Amino acid sequence: MPKPTVLAPAALPALITEQLSDRYELIELAEADDAAGVLAECAERVRAIVTQGAVVDRAYMEALPNLQIVANFGVGYDKVDAAAAAELGVIVTNTPDVLNEEVADTTLGLLLMTIRQLPQADQHVRTGAWVNDAFPLTPSSLQGRKVGIIGMGRIGEAIARRLEAFGVVPVYHTRTQRSHLDYTYYDNLLAMASDVDTLIVIVPGGPATQNLINREVLEALGENGILVNVARGSVVDEPALIKALQDKVILSAGLDVFADEPNVPQALIDMEHVVLLPHVGSASVPCRNAMGQLVVDNIVSWFQTGAPVTPVAETPVTVL
Ligand code: A2R
User: Fold this and answer.
1) DSSP string of 112-141?
2) CATH number of 5-96+286-305
3) Ligand 1: centre distance to CA 152 (Å)
């Protein structure tokens, strides 16, 4: 039996490529001089795609007639058309749970950096400004803030636990109430935004959440409002956010994700009161290794047993 062919449309971490190339024919398009030619040559053989950030849409999958599985490196799989995959009989997997604590840690870091202006305070020391002036008091504090979490899934819960340890009991908005949680639930996002002064966004990207945070939500959040987005750039109407920050409709924002990464609007870069991170929610070596191993485990399990470890909701696998 020939080894199954696995396609990597974009560069992958060595932890993944080393293990996959030991077991399978691994085709890395990022390494090819003529990627289109290589793809055309292997299209009939490809049975698996392993992807980190590449767009895998219906047309891409339809061009691979023997495709069985798309393993996504990351819990968010909005670049993979999972609904189309389901129709085509292709399994999609992601990397849930292994990044919950890391992303939640980053979120609390970003929240505190934004409220207490810690990057700006660091700059105050490095530029020598401290010798002349004390760093100005920050206008607000985490203590006493009312925090609403949009999305109360695996990562949302980990964020909520940390907030409680900081003395802040959050409220939350999702489409379906989480019955095992005691936090106050809002079925209406605008109502929650009116009642809190801090919003943390941790929902999946994709059409259902596109521009969920719009001008109306930001106005409801109000002039003391802080928005922290660790989900996807697409969830926030970025021009509306920029305008709200410029017009002081809200106080500040901490952003780890953007609409057109790695391109960040100059208007945001020019604002000294916002904190901008380069999508580093899960970006530590231990966490990325755990995510990478789960990608490999999904592929290996699929080819060995026909049951992936972590299929997404759109493509559930029933093992008989
Ligand atoms: O709405 P529900 O009941 O399905 O709750 C999910 C919520 N959610 C939404 N909330 C409000 N409006 C929506 N349109 C909407 N769509 C989904 O987001 C659930 O509480 C949460 C997602 O939780 P999990 O599926 O457990 O995802 P996890 O592992 O927490 O990761 C969330 C996202 C990833 O998709 C990446 O974009 C990012 O965090 O790293």
Assistant:
1) HHHHHTHHHHHHHHHTTGGGTSPPPPPS--
2) 3.40.50.720
3) 7
